[in-house]
Design goal:
single chain, alpha+beta, four-stranded antiparallel beta sheet, 8 helices, 4 strands
Length: 231
């Protein structure tokens, strides 16, 4: 199959989990967001709101959320204080989705040498999310609560545009729902209004190609498994 430039940007996109400290110019970020804003949305509502964290704002948020994450580990009852505003994952996992989830989790942990009982290592690896995997740019995305569920579909297309456009600039990303449970910390920190809910976060920067974690690439099921042809 002949790959176009667009195909290459899409297929080279991956969830990078280690970044270099190399800064990303504000003009580059502006261009990425401008391009991404061409995403379609129902009746052109353009429901996305973006908060860009760099420098001290990024570092302070990471410290706050890592502290909360550590506190929950020390006292699991505290988890009740941190709830996602919308269900990203199902309440009950069924096949084939649970199978893919397990394959993903153990594939990553296996690559990193984290065994099934290594709770300390698991906690530290999970906490890498709350450091944006060392990326110099952290993005937080919010949505006005008045909007319907369809706006989350619109949002997905906007997020994908950011990730694909980033590849055109030699950048990588990692979309992160891991932040969602800490919205009560994040929203005041970024100055979001009381009518906004957190959709997700995203790490953005230059991938550390020397880190083994970035050799982890998730598989995809073949077209024949998810497509029904109707004549």
């Amino acid at each position: 199959m002949t790959q176009t430039i667009v195909d290459a940007a899409i297929t080279s996109r991956m969830s990078a989990r280690a970044f270099t400290p190399q800064a990303v110019a504000r003009q580059t970020l502006t261009e990425l967001l401008q391009v991404a804003s061409r995403a379609p949305s129902g009746t052109n509502t353009q429901p996305w709101k973006v908060y860009v964290l760099q420098g001290a704002s990024r570092d302070t948020l990471c410290e706050k959320v890592c502290a909360a994450h550590d506190a929950i580990r020390a006292n699991p009852a505290l988890a009740a204080d941190y709830r996602e505003e919308y269900d990203y994952y199902p309440e009950k996992w069924v096949s084939p989705y649970i199978d893919r989830r397990r394959e993903n989790g153990w594939g990553l942990y296996g690559l990193l040498g984290i065994g099934k009982g290594d709770k300390d290592k698991m906690h530290l690896q999970h906490q890498r999310n709350y450091k944006f995997f060392d990326a110099p740019v952290g993005l937080m995305f919010t949505l006005d609560r008045v909007m319907g569920r369809g706006s989350l579909v619109d949002y997905g297309m906007f997020l994908q545009n950011i990730m694909v456009a980033a590849r055109g600039h030699g950048l990588h990303t990692c979309p992160q729902a891991a932040w969602n449970g800490f919205a009560k910390i994040i929203l005041p920190h970024i100055g979001a209004g009381a009518d906004e809910m957190l959709v997700c976060g995203m790490a953005l920067g230059y991938a550390d190609e020397s880190d083994v974690v970035n050799t982890f690439h998730t598989p995809r099921v073949p077209v024949e498994e998810f497509t029904h042809w109707l004549d």
